[in-house]
Every structure is written in C-alpha cells, then in structure tokens.
Amino acid sequence: MPTSPGPERHTSHEAATEHPEITYIGCARCGTLIAGLDGRYACSGCGWVNEWTEGHRPLPGSRRRRT
To answer: Would you say 35 and 22 are in contact if contact means Cβ atoms under 8 Å apart?
Structure first.
C-alpha cells in the first residue's frame, strides 16, 4: 500500500514529552505503512531500516547501573 514519503505524526498534543512518540511512514523500499518511535523505522516486510540519525530527537543516554 503506497503512502506519502514524509513521516506522519499521530499525537494528541504538540508539546514535547519525555516518552517516545509513535510516528508512521511508508517504507522507502516496498511502500508498506510502518510505525516507528521518534522517526526511527524498521520494515518487517522487506527488512528496510532508516539511519538512526534520521530520528526526530537525540537518542537517550545510557543509565548508570546500580552496584
């Protein structure tokens, strides 16, 4: 199912949150509608993934482990 090439955001509010945002886009390889977190996508149909740097915000840092 071909879709528009740009990401489509589905949120109830425009304010930035600390939680990941679910976004949708058409797969660049096969056109399947796929969902991702903060603009990072992986297609289960053909295996396409976008570059991690293409996300809408930086990846979170690692947390210190308790010892």
So the answer is: yes
